[in-house]
Write a structure and sequence with these properties.
Layout: H1 3-30, H2 34-37, H3 52-59, H4 62-93, H5 99-107, H6 114-127, H7 134-142, H8 146-156, H9 161-169, H10 174-185, H11 187-202, H12 206-211, H13 220-231, H14 235-269
Pfam families: BPD_transp_1
Family: Belongs to the binding-protein-dependent transport system permease family.
Membrane topology: Multi-pass membrane protein
């Protein structure tokens, strides 16, 4: 193999190592004891491994943050999936005046940074009396996102309309056609949308930080950030929390990466 063919692989390997290195440091730091943090180089493991950082972490109420994050993530993800499917099917298959204009206007909201709408959204929640409540935490995103609706709509449009016509000839209505024909054929994109929603909601930080103040409603990302300020810079415990937050997402991607690649490829080609 010539050096010109080896060079691209060398660049890819270097890029891969560069991307993985922060996670490697997180893993090592999480299992170092207090004396090992500054007694060893950052890229050297602490011997013997210590779980003291995890003990301090869960002793500070971190377990409650983890439960809250799981509950909120599941609730918002289910809501986003249900409403995004209904909206995407309407945009893909139903005919009504202004359908395409409405879709592109809604999709254009992707160009607006979320931070721009943060203050108006907070004022709305304040007027409704939903500040520091579970409803205020969940409502702004539970009804679906433009990106999820776009992905689903593009995928639904790749499904032959003849299949739905045949179902309607057999007496199936819109809802039955959606549930029995469209959704079973859309497993890859449903997995992709679910995965993206889980990642976004699991890592959500700014809105939970603004809308909630009670410790019993604190989420994982906020808990890790405030953990630093409450007891000082405890790098071991912070890295332990980051490792716990990272692990479910890593497992999720490993199991469903083939569905993500397939669905994105299909929606991109249409």
């Amino acid at each position: 193999m010539s050096r010109y063919r080896i060079l691209p692989y060398g660049v890819l390997v270097a890029g891969c190592l560069f991307a993985i290195f922060p996670y490697y440091l997180t893993l090592l730091t999480a299992f170092k004891g207090p004396g090992q943090l500054f007694g060893t180089a950052p890229w050297e493991p602490g011997l013997p491994p210590s779980t003291a950082a995890f003990d301090r972490l869960f002793g500070s109420g971190f377990g409650g943050y983890l439960v809250n994050t799981v509950a909120v993530t599941v609730g918002i993800t289910v809501g986003q999936l249900v409403f995004a499917v209904l909206a995407a099917y309407a945009f893909a298959r139903l005919s009504f005046p202004g359908r395409d204009v409405l879709f592109w206007v809604y999709l254009s909201t992707l160009m607006v940074p979320p931070v721009v709408t943060m203050i108006p959204l907070y004022l709305m929640m304040q007027k409704l009396g939903l500040v520091d409540t579970w409803a205020g935490l969940i409502l702004p995103t539970v009804l679906g996102t433009p990106y999820a609706i776009f992905l689903l709509r593009q995928f639904f449009r790749t499904i032959p309309a003849d299949l739905e016509d045949a179902a309607r000839i057999d007496g199936a209505g819109r809802v039955r056609t959606l549930l029995s024909i469209v959704l079973p054929l859309s497993k890859p994109i449903l997995v992709t949308v679910t995965t993206l929603a889980v990642v976004a909601n699991w890592n959500s930080f700014l809105w939970p930080l603004i809308i909630t103040s009670s410790e019993d409603k604190r989420l994982l990302s906020v808990g890790i950030a405030l953990f630093k300020s409450e007891i000082g810079v405890d790098y071991n415990a912070v890295m332990a929390g980051s490792l716990i937050a990272l692990a479910p997402l890593l497992v999720l991607f490993i199991f469903f990466q083939r569905f993500i690649v397939r669905s994105v490829a299909v929606t991109g080609l249409k």
